[in-house]
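Record 1 of the preview.
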Amino acid sequence: MSKFMGEDFLLHNDAAKKLYHDYAETMPILDYHCHISPKEIAEDRHFDNITQVWLGGDHYKWRLMRAFGVDEKYITGDASDKEKFLQYARVLGKAVGNPLYHWTHLELRKYFSYDGILNESTAEQVWEHCNKILQDPSMSVRKLIKMSNVTLICTTDDPIDTLEWHDKIAADTSFDVKVTPAWRPDKAKNITKPDFVSYIEKLSEVSGVKVDSFKALKEALHNRLDYFASKNCTVTDHALEYVMYKPATDEEIEEIFAKRLAGKELTKDEDLKYQTAFMIFEGKEIAERNWVMQLHFGCKRDNNTPKYEKLGPDTGYDCIDAYYPMSELADFLNCLHTQGCLPKTILYSLNPNDLQIINTILNCFNEGPTVAKLQQGSAWWFNDTKLGMEQQLKSVAESGNLSGFVGMLTDSRSFTSYTRHEYFRRILCSYFGTLVEDGEYPEENLDILGGIVKDISYNNAVRYFNFPLETK
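->
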């Protein structure tokens, strides 16, 4: 019987152990997609207790607690921080097979030097232990980032954001981790949302362009893209229900835009036409700047209406969607490719059933000189589990170029989520090690596999995103 989460946790053979310990373990982390706050980095926030670190905005944990019947008072309600932590500890002790069980214990070991087990009986001890460490003045957001061996972080930022916190971080020479913005223009894309018109007014103010037409919107966004470029942005991200392709004439789009500015409701067909035109514009701008376009899709959001109205978005009430006309994804990419403006693109579907479909589509458009110009993104959200990561790795390997994969991201709001990279790297090395042990890859080429492990862990992302970092 193996020791619980011992040194060789998830490493099932000698080849896997060598690949992880000799190649992956000490590689730095490049977090090219997350939702952490640049303000908290700039101010170097200190946390009063472990609940603030763990439960403050982590809807992964909130969903688990709800599944165990925990009252909302102890999740997002007015219970004390200690009461919330004790409830999470009680739940975690029974969360067998859930990745949170592993992630939580990896975080306890990495950041709090706690090698025990968290459950209901140890909760008081762990609460006191972690909080004592957090009282150390040096135990701040930046300390957690440095402990994680992170070299660069891309936050997620709206076109109207001032990026002032990025300026403050960049001006602070005492902190050598690069923090750059990532362009996330969902509010300008989501034309049917109730706050769209008020958002356009704000965009007009910030961009210096009166946005009274779709043409003017594109000019305003172009100006803001230039501004983001001046702050070293090279990454974009778009959240879509699915990647649609419903082309329309310029005149149609202007009519749709004017109709919405007038406060009128749009039809579904009009919405799809607008979003298509918007994303084609985005693709062209991204390609012109040699940035990377990330497309996240396959999520049905805000399903619990009473909870959404009370708690707002990103509180644990989203799910996997299964409606994707994948032919439209292919048509969208082909539209950009035909016009010579298809950027480097990473495709993430929340539905694991789409893995092979995505791989066959993206390989229709891959071409030199960029390695894996279009690629499937890391197992994401509900899929960043052991099974989800294994499925994604095997899918990419079987139909494309796994050696060119840009690797893991955190997609998190927590500063202790970087242990997910360790989890991923162990699974990656176990996958490669099994190929060697099963005679599917030559043992004498283990050094080649080691180089691939290092590339997927870090180097590929440096190259692909054009980050100002050295490969390792």
